[in-house]
Amino acid sequence: MRGFIGSIVMIQGAVGFIGQMFFDGAWGLLPHWVELPSIAYVGVFAAGAALAVWGDLDKKRRQKRAESGAA
After folding, report:
1. Of 2, 42, 46, 48, which sees the most CB atoms within 10 A?
2. How far apart are alpha carbons 35 and 32 in whole angstroms?
3. What pLDDT band is residue 71 in, cutting at 50, 70 and 90?
């Protein structure tokens, strides 16, 4: 679940940054709730990436633990 939520957060950060830097305004859901500077969207992207990596590493750790427990 962390990986999925992390992916959504990454997308929101990316489209917010791209929309604000290269077009008229930020895109996505975040601009409907808060106004953020461009660098904050990069931070949102990084937080989403960290969440996605954390979820993936946790899933791999659980799989490894299940394989070693079954053997």
Report:
1. 48
2. 8
3. low
